[in-house]
Prior knowledge:
Elements: H1 3-10, H2 15-35, H3 38-54, H4 59-73, H5 76-93, H6 97-111, H7 118-128, H8 142-150, H9 152-158, H10 163-186, H11 198-219, H12 222-245, H13 258-268, E1 274-277, H14 282-288, E2 311-314
Parallel strand pairs: 1-2
Helix pairs in contact: 1-2, 2-3, 2-10, 2-11, 3-5, 4-5, 4-10, 7-8, 9-10, 10-11
Amino acid sequence: ANPEWLDLALQARGYGLVGMFTLLSCLFVWHHLETASVRSLVGLGVATVLGTWTLSSFLLFAAPLWLVLAAVVRTRRVLVGGAVSAAAIGLVYLPIAGQVWTESSTFADRWGRSYTGAGSVAETFSTYLFDSGFWLFDHPSTVVVLAAVASLVPVALIAPVSAGARKLVMVSYATLAAFFAVNLVMGTAVMRTTSFAVVPVAFSGAVLMGGLGVLARTRLDRTGRYMTAVVAASAVALMTWQVVQAPRAWFYRPVEDWASASRYVERTFPDGTGLAATYDWLGIVRGSHLDAGFPMDGDQKSSLGLTSGLSVLFDSAPSGNRRPGANP
Length: 328
């Protein structure tokens, strides 16, 4: 129900599919931890291969997931499943292996490194997991956000839940630790490519809450069950209210028809007209539709520094409002 995640998932860019394959991976891991079935490993293999085929950086999640699962259960069938999945990923990427290597080895030189610290990890969860209404105060710090994410670990260790649920949390968080560690070392991740990492946290939380709900129903007396039901109902009501309220302030960006916009600029304005934007769209416009006759003008992310000459501003701020930090 997070608006940013919903916006990203609805775009025809594969992130919704990656989120689904992440959810399926978590589901199959949990099922294997509870039942040790071969069928769950087959499902995990299919999910990790398709997830990596959809988004190549998903490999940074899929690989440690198999390794951590193998370390936890210590069975040969998990090692075989991981090896088969790795071979399948290599096979589907074989036709474009050279291109993948070129892009990955030159990305940092061309685009720089921006995913470089704990603040980047916290921003992933703040953007795609926690709605702004989740917090009782504005702008939570990096420590607060990461502490909220990690809070499931002590709950899993202390709460009387099933061994499968407890191991699921450990596997999920160990996998995420490896995933973010590699991303921080590389530093080249675009934040949206890490969005699917919120799924294991949400899924683990749901499994833990479900286990605690079963415990409350079977072990607590009548008063305890009533209190648990009231707390659960209140939490559901609060989250539902936040979900209902969120679309009122949600700005959905229209279809990005850059070809038509660029043709309009060419027809209407002379060569030498500068281009600026309130968001970072100019790379798309200049890279695909407009030539060097229309130079970039000013800071494309905030529309600061426009020259005194003729300029065109691509303004995609919600409802005509200027982006925070931009000149009035």
